[in-house]
């Protein structure tokens, strides 16, 4: 697996910027570069996060994010928003998921990842849900009970990230602070 540093660097590609919100690509890009450095707090306004594809890849290019995960697995299920075909996915989230995949050596099903505002409301998500920013995934590790997955991640990363234990899945997010439920 690549180092955390090289994940973050994103291969040096420029972010791909959507103009669907009515501002020019150029002004948006300069805004992104000046106002959203990589050292900024991890939480971004969801609208803003939704504008930037984390790898800068356009439609039609390879959708593989890492050894075991493809971008479409993180798409918004609504089928109606930009994130339903080109979801934002946080690199650190992928690092966490690859670690879990390696530890259990079992396939991981992503049951819910990126959600647009509307879909998040429809499924009763929290208003500031990490699913809105591409930093969260609800996962099932094949033939492993969810409590075992939760026990592993909370021991592996005791002081950071967000982990939620549910009967049938485990919520994983790469927020910059620690949260457990
Ligand atoms: Zn959507
Ligand atoms: Zn979740």
Would you write up a description of this structure?
There is one protein chain. The protein has 181 residues and is of the alpha+beta class. The protein has a single domain, classed as 2-Layer Sandwich (Muramoyl-pentapeptide Carboxypeptidase, domain 2). It is built from six helices and seven strands, in the order H-E-H-H-E-H-E-H-E-H-E-E-E. It is globular, with a radius of gyration of 16 Å. The model is unreliable at 1-12 and 14-58 (pLDDT under 50). One zinc ion (ZN) binds next to strand 4. One zinc ion is lined by residues 76, 78, 80-81, 83-84, 116, 119.
Short structural description:
This protein has helices at 4-9, 25-35, 46-49, 91-104, 117-122, 146-156; strands at 16-17, 52-53, 108-112, 136-141, 161-165, 170-173, 178-180. By secondary structure, it is an alpha+beta fold.
